[in-house]
Amino acid sequence: MNTKIDLDQRIAAALGKGVPSSSIAGVLTDAKQAALVARQAYDAAKARALSPLTLMPEVAEARQHMADAEFMQDRMQEAISHLEIAIQAVLEREASERADAAYAAAIAERDAVAEDLKEYLPLAQRLADLLARLEASKRQMGAAGQGRADSRSAEEVVFPVDDYGGRVSLLDQVILPQPRSNVLIWPPRYRTATHRFMFG
After folding, report:
1. What is the pLDDT of residues 146-181, one digit of tens each?
2. In angstroms, rounded to a whole number, what is the distance separating the alpha carbons of residues 4 and 62?
């Protein structure tokens, strides 16, 4: 296939609708290369036409080559201008589409999390009730288990104390805030989150 005809067809196709920027970029690169080749052909034909060593019959042929090369260069420059405008518009459209897709994904995830978050209050209350039972059981074991072989709390049964874990308790670390409020679901001995951090 004639590469000139092939490039013309590709340029026309690249300027159509729905063409991705990557395809336009490839055609734009080839158009710039074709313009450079045409410029080089023009300079070579001009040098041959002006040379005193070139005979007159050959001068006419060289001048025709000059005209053809100049036309090709002008045609490619015009194509380059159109392609550059087209690729800029497509890049902006693609960026907008990516932003829309990212926003839609963010909305979908937000809504999914919001649906799951509806479980927060019942779960928080269950945890608070469990922690209250743990606290009461710990006091009970502290009193009844003194001097016994096994005086561990329920927490220590489930999460054994070792040399690395320390003795940090869930009772001291868990904070369950009431949504949109400064009131705490846990620990109940602090009226508010501010109170918890000031006197905890």
Report:
1. 889 998 999 999 988 775 556 678 998 899 999 988
2. 20
Cβ pair 83, 35 in contact under 8 A: no
Q: For residue 60, give its domain range.
A: 3-117
Q: Do both 112 and 128 map to the same domain?
A: no
**3-class DSSP state of 177:** strand
Residues 160 and 179 placed together within one structural domain of the fold: yes
Query: Which of 72, 90, 117 lies at the terminal end of a domain, its last residue?
Result: 117
Q: What do you get for the CA distance between the two ends of the chain, in Å?
A: 82
Beta strands in 84-199 (DSSP E): 176-177, 184-186
Q: What are phi and psi of 168, to 5 degrees?
A: -70, 130
- What was the pLDDT predicted at 1? 47
Q: Is the pLDDT of residue 190 over 70?
A: no
